[in-house]
């Protein structure tokens, strides 16, 4: 398996809901990332995990809570989101946390009502 | 601050014409630079990186440190090259490496 898989592909939630986005890779990569992409904008880095530990948090609001339960899985827990949080959330992985190729998933499109 | 600038939002060329997508960066250290491409209904994927100095799908990019540029070039554009192209810079930061993206250039190759 040489892909990064994200679920769900689409998610609609209210501002009081709690939901989670899931990302999985089985390439043995030890670094995983969450990016946020608004329409017609480039991906913006949110979080970086290295060896299952959070190494970079780009001052993301606490209503976004990342979790890396093991080396293959990355979750993004969502709670009390705002409509402006509606976006495409991209997961990526790389063999190590170094300047190298990022392997992206197809993304989870989130709509907050 | 680190920044990647792609001045053109849209670039339209005829099939067989040369194409150049511009990318300029600002970074005080030694950057790692990449071009990523997103074809219609496909995921974002790496096209090429400056350290490999290779040609992928006929595209090349040369890092010019003096001009802080990493322009993407292809001598003869094909219709299948139509896509969104992002220039990206990877740099060391406290906690590890970060990859930041330019705003992107949409390339449209006309028949």
What does this structure look like?
- The complex is a heterodimer of chains A (113) and B (111).
- Chain A has 113 residues and is mainly beta.
- Chain A is 0% helix and 57% strand.
- Chain A has no helices and eleven strands.
- Chain A has strands at residues 4-7, 10-13, 18-25, 31-37, 44-50, 53-57, 64-70, 73-79, 87-94, 103-104, 108-112.
- In chain A, strands 2, 4, 5, 6, 9, 10 and 11 form a seven-stranded mixed sheet that branches. In chain A, strands 1-3-8-7 form a four-stranded antiparallel sheet, with no helix packed on it.
- In chain A, strand 7 (64-70) and strand 8 form a beta hairpin.
- Chain A is globular and about 35 Å long.
- With 111 residues, chain B is mainly beta.
- Chain B is built from no helices and eleven strands.
- In chain B, strands 2, 5, 6, 9, 10 and 11 form a six-stranded mixed sheet that branches.
- In chain B, a hairpin with a 2-residue loop joins strand 9 (83-93) and strand 10.
- The model of chain B has no long low-confidence stretch (mean pLDDT 93).
- The chains are: A mainly beta (113), B mainly beta (111).
- The A-B interface holds A 4, 31, 33, 41-45, 48, 50, 55-56, 90, 97-107 and B 32, 34, 36, 43-46, 49, 86, 90-93, 95-104.
Descriptive tags:
heterodimer; A: 113 residues; mainly beta; seven-stranded mixed beta sheet; 11 strands; 0% helix; B: 111 residues; six-stranded mixed beta sheet; three-stranded antiparallel beta sheet; 49% strand; globular
């Amino acid at each position: 398996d040489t892909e990064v898989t994200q679920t769900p592909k689409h998610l609609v939630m209210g501002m009081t809901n709690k939901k989670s986005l899931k990302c999985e890779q089985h390439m043995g990569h030890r670094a995983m990332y969450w990016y946020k992409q608004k329409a017609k904008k480039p991906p913006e880095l949110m979080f970086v995990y290295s060896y299952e530990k959070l190494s970079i948090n780009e001052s993301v609001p606490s209503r976004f809570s990342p979790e890396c339960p093991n080396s293959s899985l990355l979750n993004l827990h969502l709670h009390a989101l705002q409509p402006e949080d509606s976006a495409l959330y991209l997961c990526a992985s790389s063999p190590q946390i170094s300047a190298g190729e990022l392997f992206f998933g197809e993304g989870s499109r989130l709509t907050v009502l | 601050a680190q920044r990647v600038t792609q001045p053109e939002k849209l670039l339209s060329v005829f099939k067989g014409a040369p194409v150049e997508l511009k990318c300029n960066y600002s970074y005080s250290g030694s950057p790692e630079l990449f071009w990523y491409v997103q074809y219609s209904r496909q995921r974002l994927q790496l096209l090429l990186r400056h350290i490999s100095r290779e040609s992928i799908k006929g595209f090349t990019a040369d890092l010019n440190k003096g001009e802080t540029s990493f322009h993407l070039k292809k001598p003869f554009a094909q219709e299948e090259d139509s896509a969104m192209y992002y220039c990206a810079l990877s740099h060391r930061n406290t906690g590890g490496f970060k990859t930041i993206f330019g705003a992107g250039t949409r390339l449209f190759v006309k028949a």
